[in-house]
User: Fold these one by one.
Assistant:
Number 1:
Amino acid sequence: MISVLLFEDNKNLRESLSLYLASTDGLWLSGAYADATDAVKLVKKYKPDVVLMDIQMPHLSGIEALIAIKTNNKETKVLMQTVFEDNDKIFAAICAGANGYILKNPKPETYVQAVKDVFNGGSHLSPVVATKVLRMFQNQFAEAEKTYIQLTKREQEVLKCMVKGMSYKMIADSCDISFNTVHSHVKNIYEKLHVNSASEAVVKALEWRLV
Amino acid sequence: MISVLLFEDNKNLRESLSLYLASTDGLWLSGAYADATDAVKLVKKYKPDVVLMDIQMPHLSGIEALIAIKTNNKETKVLMQTVFEDNDKIFAAICAGANGYILKNPKPETYVQAVKDVFNGGSHLSPVVATKVLRMFQNQFAEAEKTYIQLTKREQEVLKCMVKGMSYKMIADSCDISFNTVHSHVKNIYEKLHVNSASEAVVKALEWRLV
DNA sequence: CTCAAAATCCCCAATATTGGTGAGAACCGA
DNA sequence: TCGGTTCTCACCAATATTGGGGATTTTGAG
């Protein structure tokens, strides 16, 4: 049973959505509110699994409510919904830790699927939103045409340890291999990344998301 | 009618998926191949609306095929599918312009929905993948809850050099100070960041945007 | 099976880093 | 002017890293 708390200022949508969610098997609607001002209090009271939050709200905006909820109750999943496809809002919501972002949709099944997705630890993005996110992503990172680098499993493991700042000895211990083997892997990693120090390797690992 | 071209080396999955896609209303399967080597040629020949591409392929990897297709045929939608959830592969695929990324799924409806989403100009991400993408996004842009660390100007300068992978000697040269002074600054930096190696300092510098 | 890649381990030697202590000069705000 | 911080430099010693050779075993795909 997934408990849901709904914030939506549009009376019509709030009521019809409430009706639909409440009557869906596997969902339990803890409450539906037109104002997010008391969102944190309500979350504390009902401890919902998923909060469905409209971005446009009269007093406290959905983003502000999201931040407030995440600050006080990090594990509560928050699913943002909106009619607008505003890049700024999407960006803000993601940075604030939203677990999903859906556009208001005529098909109520979409809401249910999204709620289930985030409840199960995933994230749900509407296709349009996903496109925008991917585009933002590309704009940010695609400039450097990073050659695709193929590290072996062990090499990735070792590199991961290096990112954590571990020494050869600690890595050997952690991976349950000898010091000399770590040495070998490191040498191979350096060759593949075209670097010659741990710091450089770590930077490339982070930049290129190799770990 | 959405025409689909499938690349999947696993015979079983390829055939069952072919059957399902071909028998779905609104979809037309142009072809199904076990090898992406001729992907560009095949795309040119069939002009599919959507290419469903497995990441793991024998000769030409899915990522390489994706890049090749996008280079020659920018408007063709490419939907990546994989069993792995590797960050680097997801990252590479997105940067190469993938229109969607789905994990291999027991439910064939998922494939159809994804194909429709990307055909309609959206993007489709599996919940697990969406989570990873959002997390990468947050790591990049969101304010880390950094304890406020006050590095002096010189320390910042030295740390910057360290992020570039420079050695003490090179830093001394670059900052026009002696090797020993660099050493002093490094020691102070380590104390302030509570680390004891260059790698760790570099990671914190990047995470906390100290440079 | 066979072959190549991956993973494992070893040796040696040159450098680099780290940690400790100490100390003079320069700068800046009270 | 006083005191604190920053910046500068030095010396010593213990460790760690890097780069160069190997070599053997395991694994996995064809």
Number 2:
Amino acid sequence: MSIFDEILPIYWYIDMKIEELGKLIKNRRKVLGLTIRDLADLTGISKTTISQTERGVRNPTFEVLQNIFEYLNLEMKVEVKERK
Amino acid sequence: MSIFDEILPIYWYIDMKIEELGKLIKNRRKVLGLTIRDLADLTGISKTTISQTERGVRNPTFEVLQNIFEYLNLEMKVEVKERK
DNA sequence: TACCTTGTACCATTATAAAGGTACAGATCT
DNA sequence: AGATCTGTACCTTTATAATGGTACAAGGTA
């Protein structure tokens, strides 16, 4: 039906690339069955900002990510990078 | 000698609060023995931005965090929040 | 006493994130 | 055909992040 019907991980790893972060947000939003308008209403963030953040065409602020993560039930962790 | 001589965790958890994120960055910078000027030179970010980000008095962009994390050898992970 | 380092305070300017509107294309309906 | 929904493409305006300079206070050192 769509790419979002595949088995979804409950854990994502982000290597600090803005495009990957956008894909993660869009994926998670779809999983929860929300539209961009829905998420905009929930967070109070404009649809423009959400759309562009999901596509990685803009550099969002921490506050924007904070709000989006809250309503997508996501949390961020920071670790010291392992040495290879 | 200072608060940074205590045993330091190799893992931090950030519950999306900008003040905590700032403390984490400052702590990590101190652990690596870097000054704000050092980090500014490494990342290309101004000392003003770094200082205010560490104190949580400003809302940094993702790009700024990306750069800081890179030179502090930190990485970000995103997880689905566990239900209580 | 200097002198140097570090971090913060303060300011003006520039760059750009965010908002909020309209319009449009594609898909999905009746 | 039309109507609706969704996401993107625009555009303008506003808010504010980021820069880069100076100055100053606290601390350490010679």
